[in-house]
Structure prediction request, 231 residues.
Amino acid sequence: QVQLQESGPGLVKPSETLSLTCAVPSLTITFGYSWAWIRQPPGEGLEWIGNADHSGRTFYNPSLRSRVTLFLDTANNHFSLNLTSVTAADTAIYYCARRWQFLTQEYFDQWGQGTLVAVSS
Amino acid sequence: QSVLTQPPSVSAAPGQRVSFSCSGTSSNVGNNFVSWYRLLPGTAPKLLIYDNHKRPSGIPGRFSGSKSGTSATLDITGLQTGDEADYFCGTWDSSLSSYVFGSGTKVTVL
Prediction:
């Protein structure tokens, strides 16, 4: 079982940048997989935000691409999310997850517990 | 609005079986592998099924998945109170160039 732990502020003001980090203490993040962020607004379903891998490749949800940056910090073995110009619509539980992908196989096999981020003044 | 459609809720008594679908199109379910996830408030989401029908290590055989055309199905047999949760399907959507999730199904054990 790979542990993932999200951390970051629980409250962000509108128009500011939401920054979250996911620590992976039990596995080196450069080993094989890629790493994802997924969110769930209150009362709604899941939304994929994007993935990043150790080679620097990133894939983003087209609806968020203009505001999202994902990156791996291999020195500290964690990966991060920056979401700019947030609004109330960005209020959600944010999950980090390990992603496996090969050809048309794709799934998220390990998840963090999630962290609630509210956007409010 | 979710790209993949699931029934909002299903329910059954302990020991019974529930089955619910995840409907999509040829851009997603029809041509890509489907996975299923269980969400319980305050806990890490769990992968139940990947590649349409495979179970990760540790997931009991009571959970099974299948796919036919543009619809996937999750079956839970021998329902337990601990199975009460929200369940989501997911897959890649080639038209949207995005991973997409279903609208979610709440399982209630009566």
User: Anything to note?
Assistant: Chain A touches chain B at residues 4, 40, 45-48, 61-63, 95, 97, 100, 104-114 (CB under 8 Å).
